[in-house]
Design brief:
Pfam families: HTH_1, LysR_substrate. By secondary structure, the protein is an alpha/beta fold. It is built from twelve helices and twelve strands.
């Protein structure tokens, strides 16, 4: 509870982390401070700030939490049963395109393993057991994680056919109307490429999700840079131009080293890795199913 308030810097954020309401968090904080006889947080207009005593307690709490997490990982790594819950962190783009049929096939093969898919958790959650497996495009995984590089991940520009047909055969990206990532996606490859290559482009819409951007593009609002596995999977979109080499990434299936021998984790990563490798042409943009065909006349 102290960790949640310290990390969130507010009762509301801590309540979201713990899955309770903010009055419950307030009651627990007050009770804990009363029991210890010290004040852990300064209540400021901008949020909750740790006191000196709170900082000292927080350090001990983090050490204890890490010890518990490490023990949980090691115990889970000894599990030889093909059953139980398996938490998977991935992206919304993969969950609306490539992964659903793969997860369905895995469920038929291992019905005792209940998969929980999360599309908003960072890959770092593997270290805290918030997730067991990560299926994500990353340039370089963290050293504490092990796994397999499945393929490259190609990107291209996509638009609705009605908008693409109004463009010249070789359009200049800087003159197009774009759908762009918002500030929450500022560190993504798409956002970095747009900042460096299209600083003065007309922006019709900014969004906090590449899936949202793909739907806006499908509605004819403009052009969006998307992973090819998403853009080529949506029938309403066609490619505008070739692959955007500057945005390329790689798809990895990753686990924490302590968990890789767990039966359900091993079974899942082996199955999913094999299925994804069979889709390398889609992931690396070689299918080109959404390329606009133009008449020669």
């Amino acid at each position: 509870m102290v960790l949640a308030v310290a990390d969130g810097a507010s009762l509301a954020a801590a309540a979201r982390i713990l899955g309770v309401n903010h009055t419950t968090v307030l009651r627990r904080v007050n009770a804990f401070e009363a029991r210890l006889g010290i004040r852990l947080f300064d209540r400021l207009p901008t949020g909750y700030a740790l006191t000196a005593g709170g900082e000292e307690l927080l350090g001990a709490a983090r050490t204890m939490a890490e010890t518990v997490n490490e023990l949980a990982r090691k115990l889970s790594g000894q599990d030889l049963r093909f059953e139980g819950t398996l938490r998977v962190t991935t992206t919304d783009t993969l969950m609306v395109s490539v992964l659903p049929p793969i997860l369905a096939a895995f469920h038929k093969l291992h019905p005792g393993i209940r998969v929980e898919a999360m599309t908003q958790n960072s890959i770092a959650n593997l270290t805290h057991r918030d997730a067991d497996v990560a299926i994500r495009p990353v340039s370089q995984p963290q050293e504490i994680l092990v796994g397999r590089r499945i393929s490259g991940v190609a990107f291209a520009a996509y638009a609705a056919r009605s908008y693409a047909e109004t463009l010249p055969a070789e359009p200049r990206f800087g003159l197009l109307r774009w759908i762009a990532p918002d500030d929450s996606l500022a560190n993504t490859g798409v956002a970095r490429w747009m900042r460096s290559s299209l600083p003065d482009a007309e922006i019709a819409l900014r969004a906090d999700s590449l899936v949202t951007m793909s739907h806006a593009a499908g509605a004819g609002m403009g052009v969006a840079a998307l992973p090819c596995y998403l853009g080529d999977s949506l029938p309403g979109l066609v490619r505008v131009g070739g692959l955007i080499e500057e945005i390329g990434s790689a798809l990895w299936v990753l686990v924490h080293d302590d968990l890789r021998r767990t039966a359900r984790v091993h079974a899942f990563t082996k199955f999913v890795s094999g299925e994804l490798q069979q889709r390398r042409d889609l992931l690396e943009g070689r299918l080109g199913g959404g390329v606009l065909e133009r008449n020669a006349s």
